[in-house]
Prior knowledge:
Elements: E1 2-6, H1 11-22, E2 26-31, E3 46-49, H2 58-62, E4 65-70, H3 82-102, E5 107-111, H4 139-159, E6 163-168, E7 170-172, H5 181-191, E8 196-197, E9 201-206, H6 207-220, E10 226-229, E11 232-235, H7 236-247, E12 254-255, H8 258-275, H9 284-290, E13 293-294, H10 299-305, H11 312-325
Parallel strand pairs: 1-2, 1-4, 2-3, 4-5, 5-6, 6-10, 7-9, 8-12, 9-13
Antiparallel strand pairs: 9-11
Amino acid sequence: MTVLVTGATGFVGSAVARKLLDAGETVRVMARAESNRRNIEDLDVQICIGDLTQAETLAPAVEGCSAVFHVAADYRLWTRHPEEMMQTNIEGSKALIEASLNAGVERVVYTSSVAALGINKDETPADETTPSALEDMIGVYKRSKFLAEEAVLDLVAKKNAPVVIVNPSAPVGPRDIKPTRTGELIADAAAGRMPAFVDTGLNVVHVGDVAEGHVLAWQKGKIGERYILGGENLLLASILREISELVGRKPPRISIPHGVVMPIAYIAEALTRLSGGDKPLVAVDEVRMARKKMYFTSAKARRELGYNPRPVSEAFADAVNWFRENGYLG
């Protein structure tokens, strides 16, 4: 049977597509006509032109599929058009799942994010049951993913949509072509472009393990449940130290207080709006999020799915090697 992967031209989606191909599955990918297909140009996949904001393109994409991996999302920490992100991440996800229901798809794995989950104030790792509310969500991206999860679970409850939710943390590794904000941090640290940093903490995981977690959720996950796909909880200072050691550099030692960075972020956003740029050097919401340690546990996924992520040191090494080989380090 055929399985569909949305977002396969991106970082996590391409890893999921590769994992499914390795498992012997027939893979179809849905991509926009203008998408950069660098991440899938070497893959033996069917390509279906579609767009989450164009509902009429979704039925052909899911037709004849036994499973759908909905990985695609608008992931940015700053946007001049928040309504577009909401449309893609919430309404687009609902439309795709509705189309999957109509097509008789047996299982949908919906890629959410730990961004939609609660965070413990005492900095202990949060899990799938940690309380969260819309007012706790910082920025349009986190709000969009929180509301999208609610919409997906509503379809499970009201229409018996066969959806399993996965919540990846911060994936790193090869083929981070944009790159993501975490990938950008790694590339900058490896290239010596980060003389200072803001104190924060996050959960980091190899993108290949996130992809494996998607397949395990398809095979073993329970309908309506969500599973955190994470790795190790690390201070940003520790991450930068590991990256610096990999490339033989001295790690940055200057920690800038959040209160100092925030005015810079406001100025950066204003300049970006005036200049018509794609993104500011640093976003206000990014600084606000950095005030909290974003630590999570994958105990549920380990217990119920057999999820077993590799040491994060391997993720850093793979990421640095790929960035170096592809010219990201200058």
